[in-house]
């Protein structure tokens, strides 16, 4: 296939898109602008059979301990399921999920309506979500994406241990009308606990200790640690160890989403994800969006040596999609040992990056068009504009279509000359090789439901790739080591008791402490 260009394949068969697309509900997935023919697709589908994907999907949905290295299930799909029973350790988990969902609903309604008030009797105006990683990126992305549906509450997301992040947000907050949602599955994460403590101190400058209960709620699987922090038990929204942090926005981690857009919209988000789950679980592989998407990604990653994939949503609302997917994809599939514990001798996790179009066009598209690297891209666009500014929307979408066409077709020297390029030297710089692969998602409208389906689609893509690469996608031991070292170094910086390091780190630490002392 390396020798066959897409330009030739489209020349031979102008109706390729009819063969290589999947239409599902409000989604049109056109994957015809890829370096594949029917045989490639058949072989990739055979690969999916060979790794027994069907069986893996069944285990994923039914609560098997597919997160082997942490000895638990990865059951984010249960959070949006309408099954009657899903068993974990012999216990049906669906009733407890329902209890938490009702609690989210009641709480969100009471805050949005103004019935729940702050310590001076005023309704809340601002919500501060304190969390990091999966306890921040999912809700932050969804709140941004669903801005069109939001109510009067102002949402703030504080994640970074950088004190300037918290300090900046304080400028916009009034302690009397601010509600803090502390989100941490483990409730041991340095960033989250430090930021929560910082905000508690700030709050207590204006309020009394007993007022904390009115202004601080927590989402966590570690009830004891939350209580230790001083948050009342009835203000805790539980989550469970079978929900991975980066897949947790469907749980109470999504509380900030429910506060921002109301619980009905939060339920629609879950509904959209549920529909994608049903599609993924039941559709034959050739008509299965996450499966085909994952196979194409494996095709470029493992057969073409592509290191990265770009995600380009043509919607400013989706500006936080790429950072969200970076954690979901890279924390999951950035692994180098197979499921038997042997080092892999093939490439695994893709590097994800991206920005909304058309901004991205004016930033990094040059490299995708004319650089030396092959970067497969997902283009995500919507048929309808939310505010109904059709003039702008048609311009936006004309860019959306034009870019995938330009990436496919390129422009040869004859075409440049025909356009009036007389300078042969310059003409060379103005040619485009084309033959650059893109997936196009054309979705009816950005709604809570379609957003839910879109995110679930990527979750399942991650899962399929983990199965094909024979790696464990649901642990993240790689993140832990840096955290341990940071704790050791913090101890050194604060006590002055230096420890053994590599030469560079020792040199840097000495410089940092000496400068501080001066
Ligand atoms: O970065 C590692 C990580 O464990 C992520 O997987 C997780 O989303 C994040 O830290 C936050 O963890 P917690 O919700 O326990 O504070």
UniProtKB/TrEMBL annotation:
<dbReference type="GO" id="GO:0006096">
    <property type="term" value="P:glycolytic process"/>
</dbReference>
<dbReference type="GO" id="GO:0005829">
    <property type="term" value="C:cytosol"/>
</dbReference>
<keyword id="KW-0312">Gluconeogenesis</keyword>
<keyword id="KW-0963">Cytoplasm</keyword>
<dbReference type="InterPro" id="IPR018189">
    <property type="entry name" value="Phosphoglucose_isomerase_CS"/>
</dbReference>
<dbReference type="InterPro" id="IPR035476">
    <property type="entry name" value="SIS_PGI_1"/>
</dbReference>
<dbReference type="GO" id="GO:0048029">
    <property type="term" value="F:monosaccharide binding"/>
</dbReference>
<comment type="pathway">
    <text>Carbohydrate biosynthesis; gluconeogenesis.</text>
</comment>
<protein>
    <recommendedName>
        <fullName>Glucose-6-phosphate isomerase</fullName>
        <ecNumber>5.3.1.9</ecNumber>
    </recommendedName>
</protein>
<dbReference type="InterPro" id="IPR001672">
    <property type="entry name" value="G6P_Isomerase"/>
</dbReference>
<comment type="function">
    <text>Catalyzes the reversible isomerization of glucose-6-phosphate to fructose-6-phosphate.</text>
</comment>
<dbReference type="GO" id="GO:0097367">
    <property type="term" value="F:carbohydrate derivative binding"/>
</dbReference>
<keyword id="KW-0324">Glycolysis</keyword>
<feature type="active site">
    <location>
        <position position="483"/>
    </location>
</feature>
<dbReference type="GO" id="GO:0006094">
    <property type="term" value="P:gluconeogenesis"/>
</dbReference>
<dbReference type="Pfam" id="PF00342">
    <property type="entry name" value="PGI"/>
</dbReference>
<dbReference type="InterPro" id="IPR046348">
    <property type="entry name" value="SIS_dom_sf"/>
</dbReference>
<comment type="pathway">
    <text>Carbohydrate degradation; glycolysis; D-glyceraldehyde 3-phosphate and glycerone phosphate from D-glucose: step 2/4.</text>
</comment>
<feature type="active site" description="Proton donor">
    <location>
        <position position="331"/>
    </location>
</feature>
<dbReference type="InterPro" id="IPR023096">
    <property type="entry name" value="G6P_Isomerase_C"/>
</dbReference>
<dbReference type="InterPro" id="IPR035482">
    <property type="entry name" value="SIS_PGI_2"/>
</dbReference>
<dbReference type="GO" id="GO:0051156">
    <property type="term" value="P:glucose 6-phosphate metabolic process"/>
</dbReference>
<feature type="active site">
    <location>
        <position position="362"/>
    </location>
</feature>
<comment type="similarity">
    <text>Belongs to the GPI family.</text>
</comment>
<dbReference type="GO" id="GO:0004347">
    <property type="term" value="F:glucose-6-phosphate isomerase activity"/>
</dbReference>
<keyword id="KW-0413">Isomerase</keyword>
């Amino acid at each position: 296939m390396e020798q066959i260009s897409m330009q030739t394949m489209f020349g031979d068969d102008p109706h390729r898109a009819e063969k290589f697309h999947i239409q599902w509900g409000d989604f049109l997935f056109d994957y015809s602008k890829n370096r594949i023919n029917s045989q490639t697709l058949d072989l990739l589908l055979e690969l999916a059979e060979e790794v027994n994907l069907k069986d893996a999907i069944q285990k994923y949905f039914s609560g098997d301990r597919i997160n082997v290295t942490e000895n638990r299930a990865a059951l984010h799909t249960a959070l949006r399921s309408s099954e009657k029973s899903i068993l974990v350790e012999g216990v049906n988990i669906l009733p407890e999920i329902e209890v938490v969902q009702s609690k989210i609903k009641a709480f969100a309604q009471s805050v949005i309506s103004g019935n729940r008030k702050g310590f001076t009797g005023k309704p809340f105006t601002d919500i501060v979500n304190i969390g990091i990683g999966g306890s921040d990126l999912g809700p932050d992305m969804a709140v941004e994406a669903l801005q069109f549906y939001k109510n009067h509450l102002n949402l703030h997301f504080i994640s970074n241990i950088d004190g300037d992040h918290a300090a900046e947000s304080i400028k916009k907050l009034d302690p009397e009308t601010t509600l803090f949602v502390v989100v941490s599955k483990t409730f041991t994460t340095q960033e989250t606990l430090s930021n929560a403590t910082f905000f508690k101190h700030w709050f207590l400058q204006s309020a009394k200790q007993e007022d904390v209960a009115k202004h601080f709620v927590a989402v966590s699987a570690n009830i004891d640690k939350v209580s230790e922090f001083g948050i009342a038990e009835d203000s805790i929204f539980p989550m469970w160890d079978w929900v991975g942090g980066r897949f947790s926005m469907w749980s109470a981690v999504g509380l900030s989403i429910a506060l921002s857009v109301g619980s009905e919209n939060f339920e629609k988000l879950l509904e959209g994800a549920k529909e994608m789950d049903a599609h993924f679980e039941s559709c034959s592989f050739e008509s299965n969006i996450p499966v085909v998407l994952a196979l194409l990604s494996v095709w470029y990653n493992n057969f073409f040596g592509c290191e990265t994939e770009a995600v380009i949503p043509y919607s400013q609302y989706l500006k936080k999609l790429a950072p969200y997917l970076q954690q979901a994809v890279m924390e999951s599939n950035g692994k180098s040992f197979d499921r038997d514990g042997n080092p892999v001798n093939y490439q695994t996790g893709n590097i994800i990056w991206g920005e909304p179009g058309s901004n991205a066009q004016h930033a990094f598209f040059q490299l995708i068009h004319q650089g030396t690297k092959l970067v497969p891209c997902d283009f995500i666009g919507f048929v309808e504009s939310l505010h109904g500014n059709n003039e702008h929307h048609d311009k936006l979408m004309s860019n959306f279509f034009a870019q995938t066409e330009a990436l496919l077709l390129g422009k040869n020297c004859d075409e440049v000359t025909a356009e009036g390029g007389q300078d042969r030297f310059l003409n060379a710089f103005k040619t485009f090789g084309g033959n650059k692969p893109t997936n196009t998602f054309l979705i009816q409208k950005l709604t809570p439901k379609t957003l839910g389906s879109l995110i679930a689609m990527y979750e399942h893509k991650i899962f399929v790739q983990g199965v094909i690469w024979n790696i464990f996608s649901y642990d993240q031991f790689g993140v832990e080591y840096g955290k341990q070292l940071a704790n050791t170094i913090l101890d050194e910086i604060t006590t002055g008791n230096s420890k053994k390091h590599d030469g560079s780190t020792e040199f840097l630490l000495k410089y940092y402490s000496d400068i501080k002392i001066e």
